[in-house]
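Me: I'm a chemist; would you kindly supply a protein sequence with its structure tokens?

Assistant:
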Amino acid sequence: MHDQTEQTLLATLGERAGIATDYYDIAGNRHLTSDNTRRALLTAMGFEVDSLASVTEALQKLDDAPWQRPCDPVKILHEGETGTPLLCCLTLDDGQETSIAIEWQIRDETDAVVQEGLAGPGLSAVEIRVLKGLRHVRIEIPAPQGLSLGYYNLTIRATGLVGGTVGAMRVIVAPRQCYVPPSIEAHQRLWGVTLQLYSLSSDRNWGCGDFTDLNKIVEWAGKELGAGVIGLNPLHALRNTAPYHISPYAPNSRLYLNELYIDLERLPEFYGSEQAQQQFRAPDFQANLQALRERRQVDYDAIATAKRTMLYLAYQKFLVDAYSGEEPNLRPKMARAWLLERFIQSEGTPLDLYATFQALEEERRLIQSKSTTWHEWPQQFQSPGQPVREYAKRHRKRVRFFQYIQWVASDQLHEIRRTTEQLAMPIGLYHDLALGADRNGAEAWIYQSVLALGADCGAPPDAFAPEGQNWGLPPINPHALRANGYELMIQLLRKNFRSCGAIRLDHVMAFCRLFWIPRGRPASEGTYVQYPFEDLLAIVALESVRSKTLVIGEDLGTVPDWVREQLAKARVLSYRVFYFERNADGTMKPPGDYPAQSLAVATTHDLPTLTGFWAGEDLRIRAELGAFPDDVARCHAWEERRRDKSSILNALQREQLLPPGMTEDPATAPAMTSELCQAIHLYLARTPSCIVLVNLEDALGELPQTNLPGTVDSHPNWVRKYSAPVNKILGDARLGQLAAALRLTRPLG
């Protein structure tokens, strides 16, 4: 009986906390959430649930919490709506509410008072609860009206009480829909090129693609090809150490940029530094750079070392030339120094903490060991409190160095955006916001209070991964996120939206529900956790409208229909991958069945390239890695691939796009050709989709795929360079022919 009571209460608490009692996978199989999983996930959320008494207490605390705070932490209002009244909770004696008045004040983002008022006295309680002998009263005050889009801080004070009662609430006034650029509003169908920036090689970069390489690609695609958008891998800050810290989808921080993309040779202080120039021109350094350029894979560690060394020498020269005085009282004396200071000020606390983390991690690695994470630092440094602020003051010069790196990177990226604007590209840069960040990185350290570090996130079983997936990333705790006014989400969206015309939200279903897995356990032991979807979608819309950024939601995998419906209402584009767009019988959907409010692409970084797909390169590698349980499974996979190829050829035939000499029989198309690649993209170009993207590796006929999910060091992920350097890409006839064909189907105007 005791066990049954505990199980019942545990299930109730789990449901109240948003943990699903069951879920259905993509095949329609039902999975029940076990008590072990429920207990582990509740613990990760911060609940104590190791006994009947603790579960009972946790449930009681959850029920009582709204009564023990003066007001909710956040209120979402939509533009033009009045909204429901705000609720205040006060601890009062019998009948005391009639003599109480509520003063309220609203400040905008500049801290200016925009509204204030007084409700009462003579207020009446709408609800009463007695907790531990104290009478808690819920009172309504009018919702704010007439506020423009933005974020506000509402404070309330109850007069007539000893000391008064003060509460604060973040009020967010959001539009109902995301921004859509005029070209798409006018039903113009765009196309563009997407690429992995690090994969670009050239005779001038330092071993991986950088912002100068990207600018050349942008100018070429905009001027010569007529492309309206350039898609990029996530540019998030990485540790840049192989093999575990190079994935752009498991970054050190999603708030800042990877310094590997900086072109040092565009920095005046780099050329002005005699020491930097002496080291740069040294034969050994030049030989190392040449070797890094010639390698067919990106050597993250070596490039990071070279760039960090030279960035610091440039920074030292910058301090000498641009500032006067001594630490800690440096004063800007040049315009370039003022630009850095304004950048630091505008970025505020998040950049201060990020830079401090970088300095701390660098120091702790020298003192402790390379494998030490922030979880193992001295206690005073394990969270960003007063000791960390004091550390930052003592090491201000080094902290400013990491702020300088972000300023330089941000400035070079914004220059590229200006190039897209000068070229009148309808969208320009298309960024990618990763789902999560490394649990041992700067972002997790700064925002640890809103993360569930005792859990991983991933995906349930589906056709792509029959065993499910565990991505090893800590999920955001939805309860802590809301209690903190959604600050982390606001910062992530704002900082990633500001330098692009469009952005892809990786695994957009996470705004509604995310598959949580107890830390270190397989995906089969996971289940879904619910998120405040309407609130988060409102914030996405607000940041999109403010920055004029088009939003694309990566909605692959197990996605409920109603989620796609809500995303569509908010004008978030769906992400449609050619491989997956099939009818129930396995045939390819005709172009007309693609939704207009979507982005269409042939394949993605986690899937084989068109050339690799046609050759079965992914199947060959999976067989080498032992991914097939036996020969029967391997043969079945190859037979399924043959059917897939036949379906594609059949679809092209229906559209009269088959290249000469090919039929619906895959034997007539033994290899992917540039003509077949072009036919597939013309098929996509005929869809109503707002945007069609061409992966650069597909246009170049690359065989290997960017990333093989489920592998880290057993397969070379995130390191391959394109077979052709930038200067040859710019003159590649295949790209010119493909662009010409796409322009006929999707002219820019």
In short: DSSP finds 25 helices and 26 strands in the chain. The two ends are 73 Å apart (CA to CA). Residues 2-66 form one domain.
